[in-house]
Amino acid sequence: MSPTNRTVVVTGIGATTPLGGDSASTWEGLMAGRSGVKPLEGERFAELPVRIAALAAVDPGEVLPRPLARKLDRSAQFALIAAREAWADAGFTGKAGEDEKIQPERLGSVIASGIGGVITLLDQYDVLKEKGVRRVSPHTVPMLMPNGPAANVGLEVNAQAGVHTPVSACASGAEAIGYAVEMIRTGRADVVVAGGTEAAIHPLPIAAFANMMAMSKSNDEPEKASRPYDTGRDGFVLGEGAGVVILESAEHAAARGARVYCEVLGQGLSADAHHIAQPEPTGRGIAAAMQNLLDSTDLKPSEVVHLNAHATSTPQGDIAEIKALRAVLGDDLDHVAISATKSMTGHLLGGAGGIETVATVLALHHRLAPPTINIDDLDEAVDADVVRGEPRPLPEGPISAVNNSFGFGGHNVVLAFRSV
What are the φ and ψ backbone dihedral angles of 22, each rounded to 5 degrees? Predict the structure, then answer.
């Protein structure tokens, strides 16, 4: 098989999210239909119009040694924790070169963030104003760089085939995984650590999103605030954390006897060219990305049985996505079990594509689609089968699943996976 069409598989997963500090506890939370959204405590949040968020279930300071943590922005801390889990889950016992199963020049790192080290930037500016120049951390620049998470993960595993950071707002994590697939298919790498991370729960981003009317203001009922497809939805809930997968050429995985979760079929990409923040209301751009996926892979609409939707809980965005799915998949959409896991995790912005890829991979692996919670009154415009209440068993035999991620600026990324 030529280097330009190598089969790509998932051999490891890792996550730290509002539902749990690893992939297993996150999956357990998704299956239980548990919300990770909570009130934001502390004086600095008291006057905000939005006082809820989906904080990480396990603070990274409880996991990483303090000398290491103080040199990393919170987004990089999450990425490193998720990457370490995924690396071990894939069966690697040391960094590339030390573990002879992978050589450094055949290993890549592609970890995305939509905003980067925003907490470091804002906190260190406060230090500058309140305590003076000499108190600003010398680690500030490496900490605030958007490529900081990818670089630190690359250093952790000794990745020398390339370290990359796609930045495409809330589509960043999915675009990172798609880029990693291409690294393997073109022969530049045999293994890539890929995913997304975000840590932006800070008064300034929350105030800015709130003033855009993008976020839910259901402060009195945090656990019910993220409600995709419900007629009462009023915006997204900000979350934090990371999701990482180990992607590998099928030949390389087989040669080392790796356990394989699923195959990665490929990605579909497009841009709305409509508005810097608003989705194109007919779903035209999303449909183009979905069609691009079908045209560039052997995926057939008839084999898609599950979809992890972008579904942020915004009035316009949720419906545009459904319109696009119906336009491209037609009647085949009727047999697709749709899950909107942001109803439980909140919206991790650039990290969303990472953790939702982990959820999609596990849905195929366990043949269970997670439920969507908080739908009391399904919007009649949702012309699709949304999983509600309990997890939905998926069919036996060869099946495929799709993960959608869209971002401000009109970025659209659609990833597809197939059972093995």
Answer: -150, 180
Taking phi first (over 0 means left), then psi (-120 to 50 degrees means alpha), and beta for anything else, what does residue 65 get? beta
300/283 Cα distance (integer angstroms): 20
Instruction: Please provide the average confidence, as pLDDT, over all residues in the chain.
Output: 97
CA-nearest of 306, 200, 244, 232 to 82 is 244
- The pLDDT value recorded for residue 4 is 59
For residue 34, what pLDDT is reported? 98
194: Cα within 13 Å, side-chain hemisphere:
33
- Owner of token pair 């119906």: 326
The dihedrals phi and psi of 21, each to the nearest 5 degrees, come to -85, 0
pLDDT band at 5 (very low <50, low <70, confident <90, very high): confident
Query: Following DSSP, what letter does each residue of 384-413 receive, concatenated?
Result: S-B-BSS-EEPPSSS-EEEEEEEETTTEEE
Q: Would you say 317 and 284 are in contact if contact means Cβ atoms under 8 Å apart?
A: no
Mind telling me the catalytic residues?
A: 170, 310, 347
Q: What is the per-residue pLDDT across 67-85, written as a single tens digit (0 to 9) for each?
A: 999 999 999 999 999 999 9
Containing H/E element for 241? Answer: strand 241-249
Model pTM above 0.85: yes
Q: Which residues of 133-160 are buried (b: 16+ CB within 10 A; e: fewer)?
A: eeeeeeebebbbbbbbbbbbbbebbbbb
Token couple for 325: 């799915």
